[in-house]
């Protein structure tokens, strides 16, 4: 019983302990076609100018600006991808969007402003550089194209393709093992006996592991036994960079994760001043990090966002994943807190210049629908009294 009288630790202290000494994993080289969502292991510098030459921003006619304002002969036609010939002085060239500007031309008159008369083009006054995209406008040789730690989305992959790259060095995805404790847990599809529940944490956490960039290498149900728990933890530590457990981190007689972790490795802290999710085990077994989440699905969901997400981000060197976006919003709810910080499940509504946080009506830690129906955590400090219209800080889960 003495453990229950220990002071509660802060969320910030938990994050410090969790991330202390974490360094990015080793790089691997993969095909760019398979790199969506991966994190760059090193800077990528441009070897090519983009565009590689001055080209037309519009369909029209290329000419020397000094020849504009009169009637010109059309001396050549330049399709996109075709090398132009030097422009004959006193003439213009028919060309199209993306076509290379011929030597001797310095502007493009758009076709809507050009009148054709017996094969000649009447060109309105046109300024130097008008409707011309300069060489290197997008990317110049030697510039940093993408920084290490960048998560590769569609635009970033487009930049790599624009350099002609087939492969790219990315950080290896963290290997994650899920250990789901509890004799009462039954897999979906199996009949339920009295006192049993379906394994909702497994599917939920597997999805979040993938969303946060991890590679799920094992998902194991663990019986309520100290010896079994210890054995499964040891096996998981041999194959994973991160072990995530659910349940078994409180002070009940069947809560075995905490003592097993203390015997195998090191436990850093486990009781937090937050709601939901007060019981939390953070520690290590050798070089493997352990995040022991509560068995309650809502507490497990909140803990995964607050702890698992930044841990996987740090292991990938992805600094953007260390913090969730913070959004100030106007509360549409009333609540009062005592000695713990509350993470209310809420939906952010963008209404003109206002951002409104709508709290889910039932905030019980047993109600997983509060997580499925919302996109933010409204963070309520301890000893607060919030009324509708008050400003609250929210963590946005759309990142």
Walk me through the structure.
This protein has 399 residues and is α/β, with parallel strands linked by helices. It contains 7 helices and 28 strands. The protein has helices spanning 11-19, 154-162, 200-211, 226-239, 257-264, 297-315, 369-372, and strands at residues 27-31, 44-45, 55-56, 60-63, 71-78, 91-95, 107-110, 115-117, 120-122, 132-133, 144-146, 167-171, 175-181, 185-186, 197-198, 215-222, 242-246, 266-271, 274-275, 279-285, 288-293, 326-331, 335-336, 341-351, 354-359, 376-380, 385-386, 391-396. A hairpin with a 2-residue loop joins β8 and β9. The protein is elongated, with a radius of gyration of 30 Å.
The biggest beta sheet is recorded as: 6 strands, mixed
Q: Please, what is the average pLDDT?
A: 93
Please state the structural category.
alpha/beta
Spatial extent as radius of gyration: 30 Å
Tally of helical segments? 7
Q: Find the CATH topology of the largest domain.
A: Molybdenum Cofactor Biosythetic Enzyme, Chain A
The span between the termini is: 41 Å
Which outline best applies? Answer: elongated
Beta-strand proportion: 25-35%
Tell me, what is the CATH class of the largest domain? Alpha Beta
Percentage of residues assigned to helices: 10-25%
Given as residue ranges, the uncertain stretches (5+ residues, pLDDT < 50) are: none
Question: Can you tell me the CATH superfamily of the largest domain?
Answer: MoaB/Mog-like domain
Query: How many structurally independent domains?
Result: 4
What multimeric state do the chains show?
single chain
How many β-strand runs? 28
Named at the architecture level, the CATH assignment of the largest domain is 3-Layer(aba) Sandwich
The strands making up the biggest β-sheet line up spatially as 7-4-6-5-9-8
């Amino acid at each position: 019983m003495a453990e229950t009288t220990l002071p509660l630790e802060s969320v910030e202290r938990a994050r410090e302990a969790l991330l202390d000494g974490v360094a990015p994993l080793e790089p691997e080289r993969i095909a760019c076609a398979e790199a969506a969502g991966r994190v760059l292991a090193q800077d990528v510098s441009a070897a090519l100018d983009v565009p590689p030459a001055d080209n037309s921003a519009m369909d029209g006619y290329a000419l020397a600006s000094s020849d504009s304002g009169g009637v010109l002969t059309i001396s050549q036609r330049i399709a996109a991808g075709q090398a132009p010939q030097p422009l004959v002085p006193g003439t213009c060239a028919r060309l199209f969007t993306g076509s290379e500007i011929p030597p001797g031309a310095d502007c493009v008159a758009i076709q809507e402003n050009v009148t054709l008369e017996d094969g000649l083009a009447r060109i309105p006054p046109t300024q130097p550089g008008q409707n011309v995209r300069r060489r290197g406008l997008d990317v110049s040789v030697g510039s940093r194209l993408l920084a290490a730690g960048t998560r590769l989305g569609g635009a970033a992959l487009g930049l790599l393709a624009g350099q002609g790259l087939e492969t790219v060095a990315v950080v290896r995805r963290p290997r994650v093992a899920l250990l789901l404790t509890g004799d009462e847990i039954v897999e979906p599809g199996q009949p339920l006996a009295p006192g049993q529940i379906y394994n909702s944490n497994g599917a939920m956490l597997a999805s979040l592991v993938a969303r946060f960039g991890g590679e799920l290498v094992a998902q194991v149900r663990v019986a309520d036994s100290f010896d079994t728990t210890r054995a499964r933890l040891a096996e998981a530590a041999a194959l994973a960079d991160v072990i995530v457990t659910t349940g078994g981190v409180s002070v009940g007689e069947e809560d075995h994760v905490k003592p097993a972790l203390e015997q195998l490795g090191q436990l850093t802290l486990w009781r937090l001043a937050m709601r939901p999710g007060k019981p939390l085990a953070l520690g290590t077994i050798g070089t493997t990090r352990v995040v022991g989440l509560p068995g309650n699905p809502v507490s497990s969901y909140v803990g995964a966002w607050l702890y698992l997400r930044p841990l996987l981000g740090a292991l990938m060197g992805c600094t953007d994943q260390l913090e969730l976006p913070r959004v100030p919003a106007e509360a549409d709810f009333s609540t009062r807190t005592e000695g713990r910080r509350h993470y209310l499940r809420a939906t952010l509504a963008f209404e003109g210049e206002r951002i409104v946080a709508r709290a889910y009506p039932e905030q019980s830690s047993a109600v997983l629908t509060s997580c499925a129906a919302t996109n933010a955590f409204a963070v309520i400090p301890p000893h607060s009294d919030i009324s509708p219209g008050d400003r609250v800080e929210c963590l946005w889960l759309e990142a």
